[in-house]
Design goal:
This protein has 29 helices and 34 strands. It is α+β, with helices and mostly antiparallel strands. Helix 16 packs across helix 18, helix 24 packs antiparallel against helix 25 and helix 28 runs antiparallel to helix 29.
């Protein structure tokens, strides 16, 4: 497809033709979207010649930018200047990707003639480290910017993000006006950095595109500079950017184009002619200054919040040969508006500058490379991959030219190992939910391409970590500190997934041999792989593997299975008597008549701690004793795709009881490892454990099977169960020894605990309970478990048990105290430690809990309180969210104390209070902190509303006096007046009527986008037919709006471009009634 873009801004308009390629969704791709770089490798479009060394000599900061030298006559060594005072270990911001100028400008033609050259061993002309340092030193030394470190890629206190994906993320509190006035950030005026960014998962994700072309990355660095509170604005920002690119980096001016915001009539926004004129004054020709609409050149943080026009600098890959081929280099955002909840735009009281430039792309331009993967940021990794795998050398091919997807695999592995290293160094490890789950997908994608395409040996990915540290460690020293830990974690996860991948491949291949040419892949087999927990394969990976083989998955069957599982999970959230596969009284009687012994479920306790700190769960072999259909009928065999119940002689699965949710996992037939029977859950009925499963193929009574629990699922349940015991103990320590548990339930996501209380817990009590649990977790106490005779537990002071029947012998769980010592009545140990009768599965040490946060509390009934809590990473995130919201509330308190200059500012502050209140009410944060912040915000909202009323009364008095001067007499006043809200307009009307009681008043107030406010009041003693409501309705109906009110006072809204006609309607109606 070809887009025709107007070229220039005045005079004869020529056309800039930008070819836009189509992108296929799945491999192979005959034509891939190439965002840039293709033409640099062809003879018709040589890269601009870069001198061996760039020159830049720091000048006096007062030197005029308009009269600066074009280039020093005697070059200094640019790289030496860039590296003076050592490597600057800082990091960078970005305004955000500006949008579909990407669709029009940023796309280059599809791949046509791939280069066949291997990577050169010669060093690139300019080192990436020097490019990064030159940016930072330029803004620090020449323009007085403060260099700030890169934020962690793990967002702190921002649940809307999985990863930090732009440089501006860490400065959100400044943009939103919520920065803590006591914090260091509150003093920021002009700053610069290089920010680590990850775009994978969530709204902005490039994961599936990485490797398919020459430009996408999941991890990248953003160079950026900011000015807060109007420190500088458009002219300074543009001139500095132009100076850096053309004088410091030496990019020829004739290779640079710029775009600016061309306005948006629908939103009432004028073109940003100021930015246009700045670029023209800097010497950019009219023909290379392009105007675009809001989709391309108006940047917004989100649905609401600060926003503004942006101007972008683009590089011409064609170099003047043939049609221009433009790629965005730098985005400069001028935040001067705020997007309100109703979609309207309001001017910000303070303006900000927020810029971002991708380091990888800049380095490629400066090094004359056609791809970011050909720069020295990636070439060491690509060389290491070649040496470690023995695969053919990297040639930079894409699409159909990339036979066997060799080059795609190089790019995937190189990109993903950088992302893995940076994320793990910042505390994000592969896991089962949120950002850790995305990182797990990234690792598994890298393993697939390295082993299946590049034929890499086991442990290969971990061996690449030192190469990443070598290239990025100087800029981000946390990589150097964590190098060994990163390599170890990557290797451990790689080994675990390789086993799953090999098994999954065998299962898929075996199933395919049984399918006809037009058959779809059975949903049950794909589901069995995805439901096998940490030893299985995610559905998206199964689907991708099938697509590569040209096989379609039974999506309808898969949707049905997913819906059934979702329904079960929903019921499990609030357990009730659930219908499903159960053993009824007749089935149990038949088993007892046949002399079938109860299920031996002792293997569920067969797990241990590895020296590394991880858990090892033993497999369990068993025999199928009986099979049941969904309606409970006992059968000797089940067929393919059938949901069934399995009764085994022994099991390692935990069946739901004691408040702990059931295990899940899979089983295989002994000697046939390539058919997985996923077990969704297990129930215990009369001592028999029934496993609920879907059979991908025939299974018979008498088959020998091997059971595997989903280890991540089980471990999460163990964490929550041990945390539940500590919570029970902490409540007794805080509220008193008479405190009693009323029930509990736990799943991998969270735990629920019901406790008998005389009154709702105070914030201080909730905080104390959390503190006691955290102390036990930090001490990493041992958890002792032992079966003892029930009679030994009968008279132990402080021993916790529920009002239920316990087996004999009974299992005792004791935290920090050996069971024998805890059960000694003379020791009193059970009064001071957590000691309970419990059949659940538990951690072996408390440290694995990580943390516990109570995130919810409500009264079930008088005297019973229900607590909701999370642990581990979720608890840490909850604390960070709470801390962030507390800082915002404190900043709002400070703003309120300073007072508002006008009604607009007061209303904005009140809106911010409402937004904060909603965030505090709904966010996952410590409940004690929620209660405190809610009380503070309630008081602040009252103060804000009082301030608004005072300001509105003052504004109304001023407006009413102005109107009285214009209307000296008469029975009716009809006019327009500027008012920020209906509330102010109504107050003006009322004050007018108080001063001239015999006059009826109707006022209109024009608003942005043609909207009009209306308020009126009729004088006392007017005819009964003349009512304010009818008057307002007549006028607002004329404007296509609506009105409401009473006989005396009314208000309404409408939209019109002809206010005089509306005023004439108002006068005519009133005079006719009078």
């Amino acid at each position: 497809m070809t887009k025709v873009i107007p070229r220039g801004i005045a005079g004869g308009v020529t056309e800039l033709v930008v070819k836009e390629s189509t992108r296929k969704q799945h491999l192979p791709q005959p034509e891939l979207e190439m965002r840039w770089g293709v033409l640099l490798r062809s003879a018709s479009a040589p890269a601009h010649p870069l001198p061996p060394s760039f020159s830049y000599k720091p000048k006096n900061k007062q030197t005029s930018l308009r009269n600066r030298e074009k280039r020093p006559s005697k070059p200094a060594d640019w790289q030496m200047w860039a590296e003076e005072e050592g490597a600057v270990k800082m990091a960078a911001p970005v305004a955000a990707a500006a949008g579909p100028l990407r669709g029009a400008i940023r796309r280059s033609p599809p791949w046509r003639s791939p280069s066949r050259r291997a990577l050169s061993s010669a060093p690139p002309p300019v080192q990436a480290t020097a490019v990064r340092n030159a940016f930072l030193n330029f803004f620090r030394d020449r323009h007085g910017h403060r260099l700030v470190p890169s934020a962690s890629v793990r967002p702190r206190g921002d649940p809307s993000l999985l990863f930090v994906n732009a440089g501006m993320n860490q400065f959100k509190p400044i943009f939103l006006g919520t920065v803590d006035p006591r914090s260091e950030m509150a003093g920021f005026r002009r700053v610069a950095n290089s920010q680590k960014c990850v775009r994978a998962g969530g709204r902005h994700s490039d994961l599936e595109d990485v490797g398919r072309d020459l430009s996408h990355h999941t991890f990248f660095e953003m160079l950026g500079n900011w000015a807060f509170g109007g420190e500088y604005f458009k002219e300074k920002a543009c001139s500095m950017a132009w100076e850096l690119l053309t004088q410091v980096y030496g990019i020829p001016q004739d290779r640079l184009w710029v775009s600016y915001f061309g306005g948006d009539p629908k939103a009432g926004l004028d073109p940003d002619l100021e930015s246009r004129d700045i670029w023209l004054s800097l010497g950019v020709p009219t023909s290379r200054v392009l105007s675009f609409g809001p989709q391309e050149n108006f940047w917004e943080m989100g649905d609401t919040g600060p926003c503004g026009p942006c101007t972008e600098i683009h590089y011409d890959l064609a170099g003047g040969v043939g049609e221009p081929q433009l790629v965005e280099l730098w985005n400069l955002v001028f935040m001067q508006h705020n997007r309100e909840a109703d979609g309207s735009l309001q001017r910000l009281p303070q303006r900000h500058v927020d810029t971002g430039m991708g380091l990888e792309r800049l380095v490629a331009v400066l090094q004359g490379r056609c791809s970011t993967y050909d720069t020295d940021l990636f070439s060491p990794l690509l060389s290491a991959i070649h040496q470690g795998c023995g695969a053919p050398p990297y040639l930079g091919r894409v699409g159909a030219a990339d036979e066997g997807r060799i080059d795609m695999a190089y790019r995937v592995v190189a990109d993903h190992i950088r992302t893995l290293s940076v994320c793990i160094a910042d505390g994000v490890s592969p896991g089962m939910s949120g950002a850790p789950l995305v990182l797990r997908r990234i690792l598994r994608r890298a393993v697939r391409f390295s082993t299946e395409v590049l034929q890499a040996p086991p442990g290969f990915l971990g061996s690449l970590v030192p190469v990443v540290v070598e290239t990025l460690g100087d800029a981000y020293p946390e990589l150097q500190k964590s190098s060994k830990q990163i390599a170890s974690l990557v290797s451990e996860n790689e080994a675990a997934f390789l086993a799953s991948l090999q098994r999954g491949r065998r299962i898929i291949d075996r199933t395919l041999t049984r399918l006809g040419p037009s058959d779809v892949f059975p949903a049950e087999v794909a589901w069995s792989l995805s439901m096998s927990g940490n030893l299985g394969l995610p559905l998206d990976l199964v689907e991708l593997m099938l697509e590569e083989k040209g096989v379609q998955l039974d999506s309808a069957g898969l949707a049905r299975l997913a819906q059934e599982e979702a329904q079960h999970r929903a019921r499990q959230a609030e357990p009730v008597q659930e219908q499903g596969l159960k053993l009824d009284v007749h089935s149990l009687g038949e088993l007892q008549r046949r002399g079938v012994p109860p299920t031996d479920d002792s293997p569920k306790y067969n797990y241990s701690l590895r020296p590394s700190g991880g858990y090892e769960f033993s497999t369990c072999e068993a025999q199928v004793l009986q099979l049941y259909t969904e309606d409970g009928t006992a059968v000797a065999s089940v067929g393919e795709g059938q949901r069934c119940g399995l009764l085994l002689d022994r099991t390692s699965f935990y069946a739901e009881q004691g408040g702990q949710t059931s295990d899940r996992g899979y089983l295989v037939r002994v000697g046939q490892q390539d058919v997985l029977f996923p077990v969704a859950r297990a129930h215990v009925c009369g001592g028999f454990v029934l496993h609920e499963a879907v059979a991908p193929e025939c299974l018979q009574v008498g088959d020998q099977v091997q059971l595997h629990v989903d280890e991540a699922w089980r471990l999460s349940c163990m964490e929550k169960h041990t945390a539940t015991h500590l919570l029970n103990w902490a409540l007794r320590q805080t509220l008193g020894p008479s405190t009693e548990q009323r029930g509990s339930h736990l799943s991998p996501e969270r735990l629920r605990f019901d406790v008998a209380t005389q009154a709702p817990l105070t914030p201080e009590q909730l905080q104390a309970v959390e503190g006691a649990v955290r102390q036990a977790v930090e001490q990493d106490e041992a958890v002792y478990m032992e079966e003892v005779a029930l009679k030994l537990t009968a008279h132990v002071p402080g021993l916790r048990s529920l009002d239920e029947v316990y087996p004999d012998p009974v299992r005792v769980v004791s935290v920090g105290v050996p069971v024998a010592h805890a059960l000694n009545p003379a020791s009193q140990a059970a009064l001071q430690a957590s000691v309970e009768l419990c059949c659940g599965t538990h951690l072996l040490r408390t440290g694995s809990i990580g943390d516990l946060v109570i995130i919810g509390e409500r009264q079930l009934a008088k005297g019973t309180t229900r607590l909701l809590a999370v642990t581990g990473e979720q608890a840490q995130q909850a604390r960070e969210v709470g801390q962030s919201l507390a800082q915002e509330v404190e900043a709002a308190t400070e703003r309120l104390s300073r007072g508002s200059r006008d009604v607009e500012e007061a209303h904005q502050l009140s809106k911010d209070m409402g937004r904060l209140t909603e965030a505090v009410d709904t966010a996952v944060l410590p409940q004690w902190q929620r209660r405190q912040l809610q009380a503070t915000l309630k008081a602040l909202q009252r103060r804000a509303n009082t301030a608004i009323r005072k300001l509105e009364m003052g504004r109304a008095a001023q407006k009413s006096q102005e109107l009285l001067k214009r209307h000296s007499g008469g029975p009716v006043i009809v006019d327009t007046v500027s008012a920020e809200s209906l509330s102010v307009l109504v107050k003006v009307v009322r004050q007018l009527c108080e001063q001239v009681p015999s006059t009826s008043v109707l006022l209109l107030s024009p608003q942005p986008l043609g909207r009009v406010l209306c308020a009126c009041q009729v004088a006392q003693g007017t005819t009964p037919a003349f009512t304010a409501e009818a008057w307002a309705l007549a006028v607002c109906s004329h404007m296509g709006g609506k009105a409401w009110g009473s006989r005396v006072v009314a208000q309404g809204t409408g939209s019109t471009a002809d206010l005089e006609a509306a005023l004439s309607t108002a006068r005519a109606y009133a005079l006719n009634q009078l």
